[in-house]
Amino acid sequence: MTALIRMRLAGFVQTGRAAAPLFAALVVLSILYGGGQAQAGEAYGVSAAVLFGVLAWQTKILLDVEPDVQRRLNRVAVGGAFRETAAAILASLLAGLPVVLIALVLPWVVGGVTGPQKPGDPPLGTGIALGVWAHLLLLLPAVALGALASRAVSGQAARGLAVLVGGIVLAIVLGLKSSPAPWLMPPVMAAARETVGGADLAAIALATGWGVAWTAIVIVFYARLRLTRP
User: Fold this and answer.
1) 74 in Cβ contact with 217 (< 8 Å)
2) Of 86, 77, 99, 97, whose CA–CA distance to 5 is shortest?
């Protein structure tokens, strides 16, 4: 599995396909922080929500790089469809980490983050910790959504694009405070809201459990589809 993960990541980078989501992340983050300074928690919360779609798209690109015949050969080489599917998810998570790191570092380079401005504002360290939490939490469902939209599952480019775009839009719309069923999608907007104003441990624990559970359900569904397809 380790060799397969390395091969997928190498193919993703060496074919140049890693450039598109990376540039997209840099563009949206530059636009975000170009509007002026914000406190760390607020800035990072919006950053994590914006990058959710980029990370899902990156996952789809990474998994679509591999030709169908090569994927079938890999399944045999690693000893079964389960291990090959697990390697796909792990490679996608590893590919997302550099984007998360860029999102955490870039605002300091461009001066987009400021410390507490008023006595009641949360400490800078709290905002940073919440920002790291939000980015890592939303990386999980982003990978799950991107995997579900990949060619190996969707079968058609149009269908995969519909799954990807539809999932991103629904995550935003159903994540609004007025949503009647926010639990249908991952806590993209909820995580962004929880980074503002300090740490509410109960809300953070709820959002974490919600995000992990949603990711697990989608990954299981993805794995079942992969196991039933050549």
Assistant:
1) no
2) 86
